[in-house]
Each structure stands twice: as structure tokens, then as C-alpha cells.
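Aim 2, interim progress: modelling of the iron/sulfur cluster-bound target.
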Amino acid sequence: MALECINGKILHVDLTKRTTWVEEPPESFYRTYGGGSAMGLTYILKETPKGIDAFDPANVMTFFTGMPTGLLISGQSRISVNAKSPLTGAIGDSQSGGFFPARLKHAGFDGIVVRGKAASPVYLWINEGEVEIRDAAHLWGKQTHESEELIKQELKDTNVQILQIGPAGENKVRFAAIISMMNRANGRTGMGAVMGSKNLKAIVVQGALRKKAADPKALTELFLRGTKRIPDTPSSHGLHVDGTAGGVGWQNFTGGLPTRNYNEGQFEGHETIGGDVMTNTILVKRDTCFSCTIRCKRVVETEYKGIKVEGRFGGPEYETIGTFGSYCAISDLSAIALANQMCNQNGLDTITCGATIAWAMESFEKGQLTLEDTGGIDLHFGNADAMLKMVELIAKREGFGNILAEGSAKASKIIGRGTEDNLATAKGQEAPAHMPQVKRSMGLIYAVNPFGADHTQTEHDGSIEETAGEDARLRMSQIGMTNFIKPGVIDKERSKLVAVTQKVLSCVDMMGLCSFVWGVGWVLYFPAELVEMLRAVTGWDLSMEDVFEYGERRINLLRAFNMREGFTRKDDDLAPKFFRPLQGTGPSKGIHYTREEFEGMKDEYYRLMGWDIQTGNPTPEKLAELKLDWVVEVM
Amino acid sequence: MIVNVVLYSSLRLLLPPEKNGKGALEIHDQAILQDLLDQLGIQGEVAVSINDEIVTGRQMNLKPDDTVQVFRPVGGG
Ligand code: SF4
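Predicted structure of the complex, ligand included:
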């Protein structure tokens, strides 16, 4: 019987020729690639010419859901967006949740492949299998809430789901995000700027074509089992009560809350910016993604110096509180909430945006940047007004904002004067708010991850350290991790943690799943239940081995793209800051990587991945083993 | 004896709302850490520190005036 969890249809769009067509791949395509970025990369690797600029119309852009997306179970409504990244020059990859991914499935397609560039701004309108390329000249220049209203009026439907860019994407800010619901972001790696370069303002979907699991009873049982478990699972219940920002206190306690541009690990103002404070002061509601009972999303209302922060723009995640808060030494939660709103209105990645401003603040403090450079803006740490002004200027690419719109790594090359020394990046992407000085494997994944520093691609270190509790140990044992090591010590097990859990989370990503629900530790379901769920959805005889194989296939496809662009082991590196002793207070003070231990972790990681240790790249044998022989031919 | 507790994130809801997760708790003199967690009603995976040191097991004796912090660690976000 045909698979009922998918549409079996992929939409192709050529914006240059203004044409669309539908592909109906065989089931074997789904069985091999699952969805998400693995599926996207099959098109990108075959069609995107080697070495092009990310803003070249030939940069093929893909949007893919996963097999379970749109079904009734928590944590399945996610979409991966891929193209060459304008921020890093490597592959771009970014996921987001909300309702758009499920609705795209219900509108009749599993994914979209976009080629070329429209002669003038357009948006895509997809309604139960019908597709139209519509004029978007009247939407160009509009912020996300304005476009959202105009599109809904135009289509006379207030329930359409809209994935769109704001002015930052139109202005090709290199870290522009793609936004849906005015508060969910495919934030990282500048995918919004690629959309802008194609004159594609939005993708709008509507439909009620419900999909079915192969074993609906088993899926429902699993859904209810998970939902019942939430109140007694501190991580999931905590996510519901205080959101991701509930972790601020813990991060600060361990010395792992990046402070003053990643120079310190404890922030004196942490007590006023945590999730508990948000809940007790400015939270008005909790929100969710399609069919998820955790409901971890924040809706906040507040005011900063007379400017309203509105509920429709959501509320800041832990990462956003980190980058606009502790990174910039700002302890005013309302200012952070306003920065979050501005990013969602303009379509900016909150991580790179806040981290880039923090980098400029450190450079300003050191006198490497002056008032003359910044156009009179006093960029000292802690200046919330200056931080907010910079967000505005970045989105518009005005004044000093035009330089920061390049991201910190490219901006440091423009400015020079030793500002390169202040970077906290890997592959040109700013590090998120999980510090390698505390979570000792984090620097390795930041360096080897194909799309730059990212905290979502592996399990964090607490789960394999001696301090791990029974629950974590059980979860880790289900994926073959049974050695528990001393906190803080660099050990081969850290490379194994990265290699093993990167594969699991890679599968989670490509299947369109949320890692707060289906990840490894500190989440709702156990790894064995991930297999159980995928079996119920597809009816295929899957095992944990298949989870590893799916994940590995995605990682190798992403790495193959980078290999073709000339990336090698030397690009799997961290900014010099991570090799200098951490300043500040707390248990992480003085900690850093030595070059030797860091390269040693890489050696072991490449060995475990079956790659060439000298180049850090996938070997033809490895690709063949993963049924990716064709990749060798398109190199 | 009396021990001080600081409960982070949603765990703070185990104490009356006005305490916002911070309080002093009476517990029997022979109490081990697990007794305190049971008394608070804490189940599932949490991280615990006693007097600012993260602890591995749950069987250590508590002393009067110890400060026990209980966290919900985070992996992502
Ligand atoms: S846990 Fe949060 S982010 Fe994940 S699916 Fe549920 S509501 Fe969405």
C-alpha cells in the first residue's frame, strides 16, 4: 500500500521563467532520504554550480518537511531550508516549527525546490495542490506583520500560513531569517537573504489534505503516552512553564552563560533576565506548534521606553536572552523582548544579530571602533538603547548597520585593527549561548558542523558526565553510550558523544522533528520511542541502526557540499578566543582549549565518522556505503 | 534541622508562589539528599548542587544550613 503519511509530491518552481511543475518521486526516494535537508541536498548538489556567490540566481533553494510532519503527535511540524549560505559560504541549513510545516503537507506537498530569480517581487500561493506565482511588489519593504495582514486580506483567508522575509532579507543582510506566524524563525545561516536575492517575498499555504500514519493506533497511543508524561518530566514541564529561558539560572551557575561577548561565563544581571522572571512579569500566554502538547513558546507583552512589545511577535528564547542580554551585558528583559520583536518584524536571526552587536561592543570598549565608525552610537557594553538602534540599522543596512549586516566575521575583515581577535565564531557563524568552556564537546561540534557554530546538532555534555542521573543514562544507553566521564575533562568520549548524537539529531532534523520532543536527553521521548514512532508513521521495519544511517546520510550530504566548495579540515576551526583563558568569575574561569587537545578531538571525530583524517572530508567509500555513490560524480 | 533550598525554573512551583523557589525547609536530622527531594516532590531528571558543588549521587547526608539548589539543565534553545 502506498505511503499515506506523505503526499508523494514535490513542488518545483523556476522564478526566472515563472513556471512550476510537480515531481512524484518513488517511495524509494523517501525511504533513502527521509526528508528535510537530506532531501534538499539531493537537488542542491546536482544543480547548484560549484563556487557561485550565494546571491547568484543559480543558488538552488529547498524547503522540506519530514515523513511525520502534519500528523497528530507532538514535535513533528518542522521545516528545513537549505541553500548555499551568504554568511559562511558553506551549506546553509535552518529549521523552524510552528504551523507552516504541517500546513504545507496539508496543502499537498512534502517539499519545494526553488530555482532562479523573479524579475520583480513575487510570492507563492499554494492551495491544496494548486500553485500560483503572484505579484508581491506591494509587499516589498513591508515588515512581517504588515505583509501578514495584506496577504490575508488579499486571499480573503485569515487562516493561511505564511513563510516570509522582512526588510532584512530584502536588503540581503547576511543573517536574515525566514519568519512564520510573525514569531517563528528559520534563523540561522542567512536563508532569508537568499530568498530576498530571488525576489521571493513569501510562500503562502492552505489546505486540509490530512495525512495518515501507517499504524494510526500506535501513533495515537504514543502521543497520549508522551502527553501524560509531561507533568513528571522536569525538562518538558520546565519548557512549558518557563520556556527555553528557564535554563538561564543553570547556565550561569555552571559558568556557562556567555557574557560580554563570550569573554566571561557568569553575568551579574542574570537574575533579571531568566525564564522565571519572564513568566512572573511579562508572559501573557504560552503558544505551541501544530499538535504539540508541550507548548514551550512564549507570548509576552511589555514596553520599553514607550515602545510596545506585542504578543503577536512571541517572546525571547534562551538564545535570544543570551545574545541580546548577557553577551551585550544587558539586564533589562523588556529591552531584550523589544530586540526580539524587531528581529521578528524585520526578519533577522536573533543569535547572529545579538552576537554581532556584542562583538562590536567589545571592539568599541577596546577602542578599535570609535564614535566616528559607529555614527555617534555609544557601543559600550550594557547600553540597551545602542543595542536596539543597531538592530534597526542592521535591518535597514544603514550607517554602521551596513557593516554589521555582514555578520561579525566579515565585518572584522572590513574593519581590521585587531577586531578579528574579538570574534566568537566557527566557519564565520556566531557561537550560540552554550559555552565550550563548560560543555567541553561543544567546541568540537561548533567547528565540525557543516553549517557553522550550532548548538542543536548534538547532545550536550551533561548526559555523558558522571553527574548524569538514571534517566539520562538510560537514554544514552539506548544509543550505545555507556561510559560516563569526569566533568570538564577532555576525553575521547567527547568526540564519540559528538559523532553518535550528531547522527541521531541529524535524523531528528531531516524527519522534521523537534529536538525538545524527540532529541536524546532532557526531552519528552526516549530514543527507542523515536524508532517506535517512525515505524508507526511509515510502516517500515526500522531500527536504531536506520536512525543512525539516516542521520549519517544527511551529515555526509552537507559535508559533500562543503567539500566541493573547497572546505577542508582547516576550516573546521574555532575563533582564537576559544583558545584563550576565560575571564570573569565562576567555575569556568581560566578554562580554554589547547590547540593539541582540540585537534586531537577532531582526529577522533573524523575517525569515528569514517572520513579522511587529513582533509576531514567524506571518502568515496563512505559515500558508497551510504548509497551516495552519485555524489562522487557531481563533485 | 533546617536546610536552604533554591529551586530553579518550573521546580520553583513546588514552593508557595510568593517564595519564587527560595525557602528554608525543616527536615529530619538524618536526612540524605533523596529524602529532601522526596519531601519537595521532585521526580525525574534534575541537577543538584549542595553548597555550590554539583553532586552525582543522591545518598549524601545533609547538614544544618546546607544550601541545596535544584536545576532543570538545558540542552538546547
Ligand atoms: S516543544 Fe516547543 S518548539 Fe518543539 S514542537 Fe513543541 S511547542 Fe514547538
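The radius of gyration of chain B is 12 Å. Residues 3 and 12 of chain B are 16 Å apart (CA to CA).
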